[in-house]
Amino acid sequence: MGITIRSFEEQEPGLKRQLGWVEHNGNLIAANIVGDLKRLQELVGHSIHAEYELEDVLSLECDLPRNDEHSGIFPLPDGQIEIDGTVHNILQIDSDSAVVDVYIRNGPEYITFDTNELHNVLPVIDRRICIRGRKLTVYPTWT
To answer: Which pTM was predicted?
Structure first.
């Protein structure tokens, strides 16, 4: 399923990042969409796979009971973004950092965070995590 690019708010032909709207599991979310404008325009209205990034993680709750029915990427009324999913895997890089894979069932897809982004919190595998942040960036996966 992934996301669907719905429209662009600003179109700057020379830039590799466009402000636009994406739909994820029925939720319309403002996002920076990375790629050549002409190629991105060809994707409007189509379901695509992408990688995601939050500019800032503002808060998180972890070690919550797993509940795949609540998983997803959600816009919040204050402009923040909520990512709700299950910790799938943790890859320890060194004593101070690890890469955390979060599975979003209602997508389905994964989003990856470094523990530094998660305020040095190391969550528990197979437990639910809810991350709130701002400025979603979408990197379409080109075929």
So the answer is: 0.89
Kindly give the confidence (pLDDT) of every residue in the chain, 143 residues in length, as a single tens digit, with 9 standing for 90 and above: 689 999 988 666 666 888 999 999 899 999 999 988 888 889 999 989 899 999 999 999 999 988 888 899 999 999 999 999 999 999 999 988 999 999 998 877 889 999 999 999 999 999 999 999 999 999 998 75
Report domain extents, the chain: 3-50, 57-133
Place of tokens 């690019």: 5
Q: 135 near 52, Cβ under 8 Å?
A: no
Q: Work out the number of other CB atoms within 10 angstroms of the CB of residue 24.
A: 24
CA 16 to each of CA 4, 73, 114, 139: distance values in angstroms, whole numbers, following the listed order? 18, 23, 24, 10
Rg (CA), the chain: 15
